[in-house]
Design brief:
The complex is a heterodimer of chains A (125) and B (162). Chain A has two helices and six strands. Chain A has helices at residues 2-24, 73-78; strands spanning 36-48, 55-60, 65-69, 91-98, 106-114, 117-120. Chain A has a five-stranded mixed barrel with strand order 1-2-3-5-4. In chain A, strand 4 and strand 5 (106-114) form a beta hairpin. Chain A is elongated, with a radius of gyration of 20 Å. Chain B is an all-alpha fold and 162 residues long. Chain B is 78% helix and 0% strand. Chain B has seven helices and no strands. In chain B, helix 3 (24-50) packs antiparallel against helix 4 (59-87). Chain B is elongated. The chains are: A alpha+beta (125), B mainly alpha (162). Chain A binds chain B through residues 4, 7-8, 11, 15, 18, 22, 25-27, 30, 48-52, 72-74, 76-77, and chain B through 17-20, 22-26, 29, 44, 48, 51-53, 87-88, 146, 150, 154, 157-158, 160-161.
Chain lengths: 125, 162
């Protein structure tokens, strides 16, 4: 009986250890550690707030297309940056962290600046 | 695989979901968690029973609530999972966790079908006298099941962190 109890306890412990492992992983900024970056470019794909994060695409003045990752939809929306806020073809500046994979032109940004307005999708602490 | 992903991303379902507002993804994600909770909670009870826990509870008694609840949770998780995937499907192209999770899901389902065809399971569910070895067979079945579903859930959770 105690042998069986031990197996049960071991299985439960294993299960909770797995769950703790999962919980300790952090989505946040883990893939975006290549340093602070500021990009100015023309909006080529408008802000989309569907999906796990808001997104947009901008082309910088060297012709490079950047995938911009914003905060999750509701949070980006709350910062005032809505899908219809910035028209296509407008010039915006974004500030954030570049993806650690330098072959990817992707940045997760804290702030989008357009027309003198600052949208802090991740407000400074 | 990429073609299938591109098809899902361009599907009417994906277009519809993307147009539903900024909270849609979060709410679909909530349904996914409710489905997983229901599925894994039920699987955990049944599999631990197969592994030898709570032997005083007859197998049919614990299978009666857990099997249909697991099936319900599975359906909820699959529907919401496909919906979540449809938002940006091609972004998950090459994601190793997704590529482990989906076949494991099929293996876990096959395992369910196998368990239900085991004579040890049938004897247990019918309340017939168990034969030597039944307990071991069911324990192995429970362990395999638990391992498969935990793999599916763990890989699923990790998809977004790749």
């Amino acid at each position: 009986m105690s042998y069986r109890k031990n197996i049960q306890s071991a299985l439960l412990a294993l299960f909770f250890a797995c769950m703790a492992q999962v919980a300790s992983a952090h989505h946040g900024w883990s893939g975006n550690t290549a340093g602070e970056i500021e990009i100015t470019g023309v909006v080529e794909t408008a802000v989309s707030l569907s999906g796990p994060h808001g997104t947009m695409r901008i082309r910088d003045d060297e012709g490079q297309l950047w995938d911009i990752t914003l905060a999750p939809g509701p949070r980006t929306h709350r910062s005032g940056l809505k899908e219809s806020t910035v028209p296509l073809g407008e010039t915006v500046t974004v500030q954030g962290q570049r993806n650690e994979d330098m072959e990817m032109y992707e940045a997760k940004v804290r702030r989008v600046i357009w027309n003198g307005k600052e949208f802090d999708v991740y407000p400074p602490k | 695989m990429y073609e299938l992903m591109a098809w899902l991303e361009a599907s009417a379902l994906a277009e519809f979901l993307r147009g539903l507002g900024v909270w849609t993804y979060g709410l679909v994600n909530l349904v996914h968690i409710l489905g997983i909770g229901t599925l894994l909670g039920s699987v955990l009870l049944l599999d631990l029973r197969l592994l030898g826990a709570w032997n005083s509870i007859p197998l049919p008694t614990i299978a009666r609530p857990t099997v249909p609840l697991a099936a319900t949770g599975f359906v909820l998780a699959v529907c919401s999972g496909v919906a979540m995937l449809s938002f940006n499907t091609t972004e998950y192209h090459g994601n190793p966790f997704l590529y482990i999770k989906l076949p494991m899901l099929v293996v876990a389902l096959a395992n369910v079908a196998i368990i239900q065809r085991l004579s040890a399971w049938r004897r247990g569910m019918a309340g017939d006298a168990s034969q030597p070895g039944d307990r071991g067979v069911l324990a192995v079945a429970g362990a395999v099941s638990l391992l498969l579903w935990l793999t599916v859930v763990a890989c699923g959770r990790m998809i977004g962190y790749w």
